[in-house]
Specification:
The complex is a heterodimer of chains A (308) and B (279).
Chain A lengths: L2 H9 L13 H28 L1 E4 L5 E4 L3 H8 L1 H34 L4 H9 L6 H12 L5 H8 L11 H29 L3 H9 L4 H30 L2 H4 L13 H10 L4 H28 L5
Antiparallel strand pairs in A: 1-2
Helix pairs in contact in A: 2-13, 3-13, 4-8, 4-10, 6-8, 8-10, 9-10, 10-13, 12-13
Chain B lengths: L7 H29 L3 H4 L13 H6 L7 H31 L5 H13 L2 H15 L5 H25 L4 H8 L4 H12 L1 H16 L3 H6 L7 H7 L8 H21 L1 H8 L8
Helix pairs in contact in B: 1-13, 4-7, 4-10, 5-7, 7-10, 8-9, 10-13, 10-14, 12-13
The chains are: A mainly alpha (308), B mainly alpha (279).
Chain lengths: 308, 279
Amino acid sequence: MSVTAEAAAARAPVTHEPTRRRLPFEIKMLAPALLVLAAVSLFPFFYIIAMSLSQVKLIGGISFSWAALDNWSRLFGDGAVWASWVRSIVYFIATVGLELFLGVTIALAIHEAKRGRNILISVVLMPMFMAPVIVGLLGRFLTDSTYGLYAWILRSLHLYTGDILGTKTAAFAAVTLMDVWEWTPLIALIVLAGLASLPRSVLEAAAVDGASYWGRLRYIVVPMLGGVLIVALLIRSMDALRYFDIITNTTNGGPADATKIVPIRLYETAFRFFDLGYAAAIGLSMLFVTILIANGFMRVMKARGLAR
Amino acid sequence: MTSARGGVGSRIGLKLLLGVILLWTVVPLVWMVASSFKPADELTANPPSFSFKPTLDHYNALFSGGNNIGPYIRNSLLAAGLSTIIAVALGCLAGYGLARSHFRGKDHVAFWIISQRMAPIAAVVLPLFVIFRFTGLLGSVWGLIVAYLTFNLPFAIWIMNAFFAELHPSLEEAALVDGASRWQAFRKIALPLVLPGIATTAILCLVFSWNDYAFAVTFSGPTSQTLPIAASQLVTQTSIDWGQLTAIGTIVVAPMIFVGLIVRKWLVTGLTLGAVTGE
């Protein structure tokens, strides 16, 4: 960066620059994108706040009637929504727990492989690019109690004979595993990048000193991977609230609400019962949690020296 | 961690583990593709049939008659393609601006951008639905493009920022000393050096929006439905046409796996929003 521009950028009060010509170059570059982003995000954000404070009716156009904090007080007293939060947390712990464990295992195995590493990685990554709706529908096909391949395998091995998506626990396990199948590759990819950046000298020194493979794993590799694992955890935690396509297309929250996590609850409140004001309050509570996660993410970025 | 495990036993153990990993990954995919070529009566056989005479019936059905998926493909390409182009173009400019600036409050701007990318889809869909309803964007491809910008634009700005930040400014400074303008230094020096970053950003934007279901199912009308919607519509109360469904699944998935693997080397930067850098 040129000295003058840097000085100008430091000096210029960004918001109240009188003439457009004197705006710093960086701000001119930022402006178009930020204006578009503000249009597509800030307006809806204030809109959803207004919705959460109103009773919204869609009959004959749209009408708002002021409801003060009605939706909010209802939200805090609504056992069904709390139950969805609990389910979301269980779903998050189950998916992310399994994904971290399997992702680290897969990454370590691929890292050890002598030949064909590139092909292995490419194959393992494939599920990650699939549309979640297709993953859900495919999962439904595989678990169908009459002709599903996986249902048939489980039946043949005498492991499970019931209707997988029609039984509460089995359905929850199935949608969890579908998410795990699709997103474990992301964790494996992140951990592989972490493994590649480990200093070889430390590991070799430990090996020379007689540390076993497991010893090196336990005391050197895993602690050094801590940073990337936290990144993986944060990325997956925001996704757990963000996506709901797999569940929508398999159980749609059922059976008997067993898989009704918060986003499914919101969607149903808004677009099946058209209780838009209340749905807005649920949506804002989700946004609040997301902002907490994003905050954690920024801290990690700073700690890793990546956010400047 | 090379030369880690000595014994023959652990090498065999490793091979077994890799085999299980590959099976776990590949079986659903292979089953989907194989089923799309299976004759209709064998799709719902119990037990599942493993040998069959391949047929193109399901693909032919998808491209002819009443439920021709041609328009769905066009809508998917338009919505995902245009939102990607807009997001990447604006994202390159803004990512560079963000990476090279030091204004007060930069952290807040950065935080705002990243939190937009992370916002739960259900919470974004809701206000947009009401806004689109009275602006006439509901049911049009333009509505989808705007909806996809809500996540693609913050994503593109953020990732391009990460790629530009890795680029040392000394090259651009040298160009400025030689009399280039700031724009020329960006356009001729910085931009060509982050081409892999641009490709990664574009491909990930494309994958995210091509794969979207939640926005499309809420906003699209008869003239703007995308491929994921076509797939979910094959599920009806009474029956599911698994042959056509697995065929659409293959059509939706194959191109994304292909383009995704092209930028494999830079994926980790893109998918961790710049928090982890590649191999």
